[in-house]
Description:
The protein has 431 residues and is of the alpha+beta class. It is 32% helix and 29% strand.
Amino acid sequence: xxxxxxxxxxxxxxxxxxxxxxxxxxxxxxxxxxxxxxxxxxxxxxxxxxxxxxxxxxxxxxxxxxxxxxxxxxxxxxxxxxxxxxxxxxxxxxxxxxxxxxxxxxxxxxxxxxxxxxxxxxxxxxxxxxxxxxxxxxxxxxxxxxxxxxxxxxxxxxxxxxxxxxxxxxxxxxxxxxxxxxxxxxxxxxxxxxxxxxxxxxxxxxxxxxxxxxxxxxxxxxxxxxxxxxxxxxxxxxxxxxxxxxxxxxxxxxxxxxxxxxxxxxxxxxxxxxxxxxxxxxxxxxxxxxxxxxxxxxxxxxxxxxxxxxxxxxxxxxxxxxxxxxxxxxxxxxxxxxxxxxxxxxxxxxxxxxxxxxxxxxxxxxxxxxxxxxxxxxxxxxxxxxxxxxxxxxxxxxxxxxxxxxxxxxxxxxxxxxxxxxxxxxxxxxx
Length: 431
Ligand code: AMP
Ligand code: GLY
């Protein structure tokens, strides 16, 4: 039996609750710590009062608690170099270096990598001033996509239906709507097709498929209204057939790993490819350098393999030695419950009831923005709960997830009632 180790998980979202839930099941896990965590994570892990921006404090904590693996959930600490500083101090961290995290941190960086290594993606140009960007937009015409180069919490992208809307988005970027992230702009061809995500576990040289998913980014039913961090997701993505998965691995993931290696910035961690399935084949929309949130909440319940073993192998460059991960046959679906007003302004502090009832009925309830207060769970963010269920197909997983939602009493919250709709219509046709 391999040695047990103490693990520190960094983050506080539904993604980290799902990771904590899965890490804790590993026979390799001794004590699991999480910083800063939330009310749900507190049931799986010891909460550490640590500020992830203070890398020296994180390193001191790792020394004191003899941490054998640090799992970094969100992109911000990765882009800020937490994995580099931990490695320099001799700790094993799961997640890419700051240099490799540019795949998410700079859209221009990723587009240039795609151009150099022939990775299929939308045609593009990079601009550092508004007049040139607008001239290009007028020449090219609409629809066209305008992106702030840097991290903008998922809000830096405008799919513009007209040249005027594109020019407005360009002005917003250069006038500082996204701060430093908008100092450079990428203008892209608008791709048409269905979107899906593919997750690959990478150790710098080798990539292992770690599941597929589809999410719902818009706040409103029928995928309408403003973009959010994600209102729900399901896995696997039925549209990604084995043939398409093989094509994405061979044409997109493998050349990306090779390109990053050639640039001296080997990618270790989770490479999350946002894909558009176009008439001419899958194209990369963007990379993220971490698990998706809420996609992680549907991947973890399906994963049978030991996550600690997989993460250690990725972090130490030995993925070739691990077996292909095993998965449950079922589909997982998660519905996000958010505070009314999200993704705009919302209130915190309302009491949430019925979580235990939802769990007793068979749902997995992953917490995002929650905190424990006087014996109750209260809302403490925009996206608050992820009510998750497994089923034989999307239709069945959806019914079980909404049964969980209906057990929860939270008048100040809301959710979409149609998560999974794109996959359900074809299932009904087959039935
Ligand atoms: P991103 O933040 O890059 O994932 O973009 C957010 C969303 O904008 C994506 O999920 C797509 O729906 C859309 N999008 C981004 N780039 C393109 C593109 N080139 N063509 C069409 N839609 C896009
Ligand atoms: N659900 C989208 C993301 O995690 O970026």
